[in-house]
Amino acid sequence: MNTRRTAFLALFLLLSMMVWGAEGEGHGFNWTGFLGKVFNSTVLFGGLIYLMRKPLIRLLSDQSRNVRVEIEDRRESIQASSGDYQSLKKRLESLEAEIAEITRQAEENGKRERTRIEAEGQAEAERIAKLTEEEIRNRVDAAVRRLKARVAEMAIQRFREDIQDQLDSDRHRRIMEKNIEISGDVIARK
Q1: Domain extent at residue 30
Q2: Which of 7, 41, 52, 85 has the maximal Cβ count within 10 Å?
């Protein structure tokens, strides 16, 4: 209400000045034209304020409400971000301990695996050594058998050659008779 009183008071003063100015028209300043322009401006702006007051108040109220909502949203977002920051900070602090634990476990697993691989390697080396010894033994035995067979073959060959050199028809006949005689004894036993 104070604004209306002030506006009416200003309007009254302007009208009074218009009247007072009309009495002393000889000074060179046109008070009537000036006051008319002031009056027109006051009426124009007063009417605009009167007509635009409710939509302007509504617009400013809506913007104020939107700003409050946005501020509240940002406050909630900051609080959520702060919570996320705190949880991430705790997670980062715990990560160092987790990394140390993972490293320790990896080292232990590596040592166990190395021990296992070394044991398997040792067992495999022993197995290969045994297989190699057995293979060598088998090859030596095979070579000895071949050598014995060859020696026996050579001995038989030599014996044959010696017998052929020493065998004449008389000896040949006696050996044949002796073999027939032995064969007859063997047949008779059955």
Answers
A1: 2-161
A2: 7
